[in-house]
């Protein structure tokens, strides 16, 4: 098993910190009524598509450069 720069520790700490922050902050204002029912709203598909594109673009440009730079 090959570990790149302690990535498992870095991702575990980031995930736990994000979970703790989400628990402390709580749900977003305006998404729930006081009795706990969720208000339905239309999803923003354009923003989700843009986020996926940015993620894929960054991943496909970062990975080959990182892996080939060791040789």
SSE layout and pairing:
Blueprint: H1 7-25, H2 45-68
What's the short version?
This protein is mainly alpha-helical. The chain has two helices and no strands. It is flat.
Give structural notes:
The protein is mostly helical. It has helices spanning about 5-25, 45-70. It is flat and about 50 Å long. The mean pLDDT is about 80.
The oligomeric state of the chains shown is single chain
Distance between the termini: 19 Å
- CA-atom Rg in angstroms: 19 Å
The number of helices is 2
Could you describe the largest sheet, including whether it forms a barrel? Answer: none
Q: Tell me the overall shape.
A: flat
Number of DSSP strand runs:
0
Output the helix-strand order. Answer: HH
Structural class: mainly alpha
Keywords, please?
about 70 residues; mainly alpha; about 60% helix; about 0% strand; flat
């Amino acid at each position: 098993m090959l570990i790149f720069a302690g990535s498992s520790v870095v991702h575990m700490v980031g995930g736990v910190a994000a979970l703790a922050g989400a628990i402390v902050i709580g749900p977003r204002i305006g998404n729930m009524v006081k009795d706990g029912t969720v208000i339905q709203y239309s999803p923003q598909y354009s923003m989700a598509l843009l986020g996926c594109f940015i993620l894929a673009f960054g991943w496909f440009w970062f990975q080959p450069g990182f892996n080939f730079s060791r040789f």
